[in-house]
Amino acid sequence: MNKRNYGFETKLISQDRYIDSKTGAVNPPVYYSSTFHQGQFDSFGPFDYTRSGNPTRKVLEETIAELEGGVQGFAFASGMAAISSAFMLLSSGDHVIISEDVYGGTFRMVTKVLTKFQIQHTFVDMTDLDAVAGAFRPNTKVVYVETPSNPLLHITDIRGVVKLAKAHNCLVYIDNTFMTPLHQRPLELGADIVLHSATKFLAGHSDVVAGLAVVKDEKLADQLYYIQNSFGAVLGIPDCWALLRGMKTLSVRMKQSSESAQVIAEFLQNHPLVEEVFYPGLATHAGHEIHLGQATSAGAVLSFRLPNKVIAKTFVENLEIPVFAVSLGAVESILSYPATMSHAAMGQKEREKRGITDGLLRLSVGLENCEDLVADLAQALEIAERAVGAGTVAARTVGRFI
User: Fold this and answer.
1) Averaged confidence pLDDT in the chain
2) Which pLDDT belongs to residue 301?
3) Given 175, 192, 239, 358, which residue is catalytic?
4) Mean pLDDT confidence for 85-91
């Protein structure tokens, strides 16, 4: 059987490159070496210095390239290192169109760092292709998309954006962190570079910080390799090995977490204290149909809006199972408060303009028992609801004496 015809789950596990050719070990060796002996004076081997290349990192980079359907992969020290390195393909005077509710770290990079190099940007509601079409300028070089977006899970029509970008001779970057190549392959939809915070679902265990990029053609591969080698923000070798290990269980982890996320989203949608739920698996989600046309799952991340910060605080403080922390995509459920965590780099006005209100919470669903998670959310919401009622009664009581 042609290995290229294997299913995604098989490709995650059954890789010739995992097996050490010398010993038969089923996991690749960890090459703790910064430099490599050259056997000849005039002809160097494939590796000379680990910043430029390492056998362990090569296995990881080849694996993610195959999973995404690209020609070459690149491993970086963090998701932001991968994103920043991709932006380094731009030059002074270039212009970027970028998703309006992009991750806070990307927002910071674009607004505070790229501007120092006279690289311009325009934030656009990527759910509106007319708005995207109207944002192009003569100097636009890149359209940068998160879909689903972080934290509001907005959906961008990847094919539609690619069509517009190609008409203007622009590259398309897609942050595929939420979906992973298991459920969405942007390069196959026409994108040029796909990016990952591999810290999240790919690694999956809250123990690695890593970033990955995959490109669609050799020319881009040469350009991004030059940046990777020059910039030097490469992933450490032990982390390459740990990330490879985490990726082997991606399919089973994502399956259970996504199934639980659907149940939780439906529960929250029907709770009277919850004002809005953002999850593409819900038929009421504005991007539901588009997402189903370009991805095979709604994923394991959802966000929901409570009335205000006080209620959100009461709710969070009474939860027992999810950890309250930054990040997502791990075996444990992680509840985050975007206003002071993932999007703290945005000022309050910028957050509110994008719908990132003080009552918004983001939940990355882990591998805990789904019934336990729903029960925990229910009891915390009940306590928050009682607090709302008590506050209303107290206000009315005070009002009688004014």
Assistant:
1) 93
2) 98
3) 175
4) 98
pLDDT higher at 4 or 128: 128
Residues near 111 by beta carbon (within 8 Å), at least 6 away in sequence: 121
Give the structural domain span for 345: 250-400
Residue 345, phi then psi, degrees to nearest 5: -70, -15
- For 182, phi then psi, to 5°, come to -60, -40
Whether 214 has a pLDDT exceeding 80, the answer reads yes
Q: How confident is the model at residue 394 (pLDDT cuts 50, 70, 90)?
A: very low
Spatial separation of the C-alpha atoms in residues 107 and 344, rounded to whole Å: 10
Q: Which of 217, 247, 277 is the last residue of a domain?
A: 247
pLDDT above 70 (res 2) = no
Percent of the chain whose predicted confidence (pLDDT) is above 70: 95
The whole-angstrom separation of Cα 246 and Cα 253 is 10
51 annotated active-site = yes
Catalytic option among 31, 101, 103, 337: 103
Please say if 200 is a catalytic residue.
Answer: yes
Q: Which residues of 235-253 are buried (b: 16+ CB within 10 A; e: fewer)?
A: bbbebbbbbbebbbebbeb
pTM reported for the whole predicted model: 0.93
Residue of 200, 216, 351, 362 marked catalytic:
200
Question: At CA 266, angle to CA 181 and CA 389, rounded to 5?
Answer: 130
**Of 247, 264, 298, at which residue does a domain stop?**
247
Query: Do 88 and 185 sit in the same domain of this protein?
Result: yes
Residues 41 and 183 in one domain: yes
Instruction: Say which residue the tokens 């430029």 belong to.
Output: 52
DSSP state of 110: I
